[in-house]
Specification:
The protein has about 500 residues and is of the alpha+beta class. Among the domains are: about 120 residues, Nucleic acid-binding proteins (OB fold (Dihydrolipoamide Acetyltransferase, E2P), Beta Barrel); about 200 residues, BirA Bifunctional Protein, domain 2 (2-Layer Sandwich). Helix content is about 35%, strand content about 25%. Strands 6-10-11-18-17-16-15-14 form an eight-stranded mixed beta sheet, with helices on both faces. It is elongated and about 90 Å long.
């Protein structure tokens, strides 16, 4: 054992002297625990949770509860402590709820047992055994017969009435945020339920959950800049996946007709209110379906999840959103024409669209490979997207910006593609899948050319995926839904960091 780890060593004494006073005092108490052989033991076992106790006994009258003589063994973090001479009350909190403990000197076996408890600190994890009863003020409590410290808390908790108010500290020290903020705990319990309901909804519709590679030899399935890593044994670069799409569609080729995956994607992009370089998506694919079926599935899934959470109406980004009403469906070009009627007969006029685009968005930086569809998309994102308040499917995206989507039968310049927007933010993207290998090769080549021209988000030619298409992929439709943004919507949060347990941040 090194000198720095020996309790009471000179080096440790110097370290304690440099600590904030409260931490130094707490470490002195830990030293006593160590001497008594009571520090960091793993012997305490609980008989139930605090929430289960409230659910089972919280509605009983005092006399009825006394007759039952219910004995429990519980544990939790001490979040409040009131000492009143020979008695004291401690409020403990576990992962689900909270409960009051009543400590009495005589009931615990005398001053030698009771007096040390008066010096315990907020944040200490304590275990207690005792009998349930109702106090004179009507609070369900445990009359403690045995109590001990399970884990010593060495750092003081944030001040009770203000909690963890510094936003950056909340994100960096999520463990403390969860400790002191019931609201944060509620958000992440809701997130867990959203994922569960999402999985149940897809499975009930006949979709099978699968797992596909996160390390890929070819980045594809989305327009995004990938993270690159290196595999030493094979001496080759690999990409953290930007999307699972191309692997999931390989499974359609193989004969699985309804598949989905809920997992992480990685995109080497900036951080803002709706973007984190590591994020969660669900993608699902169905053979013998088109983008209309995909929109129906997406709308039904989101509505079912909202109903499962009992939050069919939410306020997000200052917008009152009603998820119980049918979602609107509008063509992208028509949405732009409503803002710029002068463009109605010029949807494929690259020169005119470029001129108008530069007027509406002077900071746009077009590439030499851009076509009319790229400028139309820029105009949509500038003129229309911020104003899409209620849930709206924008459909028929240009072929130029949809390299994996099937062309529309009536107009080959657009695709059977949609994106879902709520309160000006994209929630989902889907389309009828392109299963023509020759058309797909041409789109891949155009992507490779854009990449050579400086588009960091363009991908290359995936020969293995083209080979899979040559074996024949049935007509199909697929959807990707951003789970983080869906949780933001359903919990009314304005930053993606508030729905990620550990968001990415610069090192301290």
């Amino acid at each position: 054992m090194s000198d720095s780890t020996v309790v009471g060593s000179p080096k440790q004494s110097k370290q304690q002297a440099a600590m904030p006073e409260q931490m130094a005092v707490r470490r002195e108490k830990l030293s006593v625990q160590r001497e008594q052989g009571l520090a960091y033991r793993n012997t305490w076992r609980t008989s139930t949770t605090l929430t289960a106790i409230r659910q089972q006994y919280g509605e009983l009258e005092a006399e009825a509860l006394a007759e039952k003589a219910v004995e429990v063994t519980v544990a939790g973090r001490m979040m409040g402590h009131r000492v009143m001479g020979k008695s004291s009350f401690a409020k403990i909190q576990d992962g689900e709820g909270e409960l009051q403990l009543f400590l009495n000197r005589d009931a615990l076996g005398g001053a030698d047992v009771y007096n040390p408890t008066k010096k315990w600190d907020l944040g200490d994890v304590i275990g207690a055994t005792g009998t349930l009863f109702i106090t004179k003020t009507g609070e369900l409590s445990v009359k403690v017969s045995h109590i001990e410290i399970v884990t010593k808390c060495l750092r003081p908790l944030p001040e009770k009435w203000h909690g963890l108010t510094d936003i950056e500290t909340r994100y960096r020290q999520r463990y403390v945020d969860l400790m002191v903020s019931p609201e944060s705990r509620h958000i992440f319990r809701t997130r867990s339920k959203v994922v569960s309901l999402l999985r149940q909804g897809l499975e009930s519709r006949g979709f099978m959950e699968v797992e596909t590679p996160m390390l890929q030899t070819q980045a594809g399935g989305a327009a995004a800049k990938p993270f690159i890593t290196h595999h030493n044994a094979l001496d080759m670069d690999l990409f953290l996946r930007i999307a699972p799409e191309l692997y999931l569609k390989r499974l359609l080729v193989g004969g699985f007709e309804r598949v989905f995956e809920i997992n992480r994607n990685f995109r080497n992009e900036g951080l803002d209110a709706t973007h984190n370089p590591e994020f969660t998506m669900v993608e699902f694919y169905q053979a013998y379906a088109d983008f209309n079926d995909a929109m129906d599935h997406t709308e039904a899934l989101i509505r079912d999840i909202a109903q499962g959470l009992d939050v069919s109406q939410v306020t997000w980004e200052g917008v009152d959103v009603d998820l119980s009403q049918p979602f609107q469906r509008i063509r992208m070009d028509e949405a732009v024409f409503e803002k710029r009627p002068d463009l109605r007969d010029h949807a494929n006029d690259k020169a005119l669209l470029a001129t108008v685009c530069l007027q509406e968005k002077p900071d746009v930086k077009p590439l030499l490979t851009w076509k009319a569809g790229h400028y139309l998309l820029e105009l949509f994102e500038t003129l229309v997207e911020p104003h899409l308040q209620q849930p709206t499917f924008i459909t028929h995206y240009p072929v130029d910006v949809s390299p994996l989507a099937r062309r529309n039968n009536e107009d080959e310049t657009v695709t059977d593609r949609f994106e879902l927007f709520v309160a000006g933010r994209e929630i989902a993207n889907g389309f009828s899948e392109l299963n023509d290998p020759d058309d797909q090769r041409g789109r891949f080549v155009a992507q490779a050319q854009a990449k050579d021209a400086g588009d960091d988000e363009a991908t290359g030619v995936d020969e293995d995926y083209l080979r899979a298409l040559e074996f024949g992929m049935p007509p199909a439709a697929g959807v990707g839904i951003g789970v983080d943004r869906l949780v933001m919507l359903l919990t009314e949060q304005h930053s993606i960091r508030d729905v990620l347990l550990f968001p990415h941040m610069r090192p301290e």
